Amino acid sequence: MIFFRRPLFPCHLIQWTLLTRSQSSDVSNKIHHTDLKDVPLERIRNFSIVAHIDHGKSTLADRILEVVGAISISKDNKQILDKLQVERERGITVKAQTASFIYDYQGQDMLLNLIDTPGHVDFSAEVSKSLASCQGVILVVDAKQGVQAQTVSNYNLAVANDLAVVPVLNKIDLPEVDLDSCLNQLESLFDIDPNSVILASAKSGIGIEEILDAVVDRILPPLTHGQGDSLKFLLQDSWYDQYKGAVGLIQVFDGVLKLGDEITSVKTKKTYNVKSLGILTPEEVSVPAIHPGQIGFFTCNMKTTKEAIVGDTFHRINRPVEPILHVSTPNPMVYSGFYPTESSYYSNLKTAIDKISLNDSSVSIDPETSPALGSGWRIGFLGLLHMEVFSQRLQQEFDAEVILTQPSVPYKIIPKPHLVKKFGQEIWVKTPKDWVDKDVAETYLEPIVKGTIIVPEEYMQQVASLCSSCRGIAEDTTFVDQTRVRMVYTLPLSDIVTNFFDDLKRITSGYGSFDYEDAGYIHSQLIKVDILLNGKPVPELSFLSNPSKARPTGKIKVAKLKELLPRQLYDVAIQATRGKTILARETIKAARKDVTAKCYGGDLTRKQKLLKNQAEGKKRLRAIGNIQVSKETFIKVLTNK
Hints:
Rossmann fold, alpha+beta, Alpha-Beta Plaits, 6-stranded mixed β-sheet, globular
């Protein structure tokens, strides 16, 4: 099949846009259950929209829904599928969202199931989960920015899942776009024929029908049997509804799921009764049945939200089947402590975390107790943005105020052979209190990532210096085109988890893009650094570090404590130590009281006696004094505020 590019003269663009919008304004795409039943399997297409962040995925989804008549045409249609408040405020997609609609293709009604996915690397698990239910993807590339790091990752993910790829060059109506350069990038990196690339503008509505036609032409229908009385469907996603409880997004592979059916989970072996069924158009529409190849949602009598396991397979009761997928939970890359601002808020915060985690299966949650902050949880995330979005959702959706501690990464320790029986094959270290010394440890391991950076050529030296300062090792450097270069580095996760992305944007004037993937663990020289106040350790302030980073990090910690702690009647020594080695020190000078103020003249020995007694009193206070660190101080130090 040969695909031709659309002419790019401005007059053609304007005429085509007006024609498409006028035609689609009269379309009504109300899907009824009779429509779904009458759509054969070969006329169903399941596809995702994938792209780097800010390349126009959500806008493209808006225009598609307008063209097919699923939503009315309006200038206010922005991020229709982004239903979370945090998504609209930040202008990013956090959760993959689904919409089903009928598309008239050459006189035939096609049922298209669209999934709009996130673009940030922290939500790559959402993309992977979505692709498991698709047969193809629309790969969107910004015509002005070109191929970015996450574009490469998404393409490789689609190919690994054996999915058809429909390449789309978006924002072609922007000034100063270099279409030839972008097409060359797609050809050189992905071996995509430039003639197969669809030129479009999601904002203006250019090329939308051409994209939909390509979805029908190039993407295969879902692979399913749909014969006999067998039933098999996959739980793609889940969320909490205050009226319905746990709601599951599903795709039916075999059989027909009907209201009242008794179904059984492959993972939990528990049986449920189907209470309601529906599809998203993107509005919720109730249906009596969901047929093979279709995507919809269901509710049942799940007693707890934890029973909705994303990736689980369901079947008809007493009719066992093999699992459709073996979906593994992604490993958390970053951990942070979550604590209620007041101990009385613990129960409410626990409920809020449980409900949000139902909608975000990529987080790991473990109870944790801190003498300074009370009872809370150690929660694992896929990145810093993931952590920020999770905490913001707690505030916006459940009005829950939380205290977040500084993020840390998980380390592994291999114990000495004669201690394996006592400690196990490996010891996971998520907090400094889990640390074991060298008398137990045979090997220390820290997590690393494979980072892909795409930047203009003139910033290569600055990026190389940044990666070197983060203990990065160069793996590969290739030119994407004549002006941009792709740099691949192996980097320790602990060094990029905080400010790396911001530093990259700063030194590249915003032109650098960064994507990373888990690369396992490597041997490392790790140490535990303790913070002492007058020689007494404060366990909550301890941290783990590479020896090269321990001293500068320790200096920052003690300087902050000096700024925050109140003055005492005696000197307070603040130290960062590694064993008996002092890495950094600050001293809070004593608050001085003028004990000689009441002496008006007289013998000098009287003043000397008063000063001597004062010095001896301060010495006794320092020996028995206990430095009280307030909760507010802990919060400011632990949260790095």
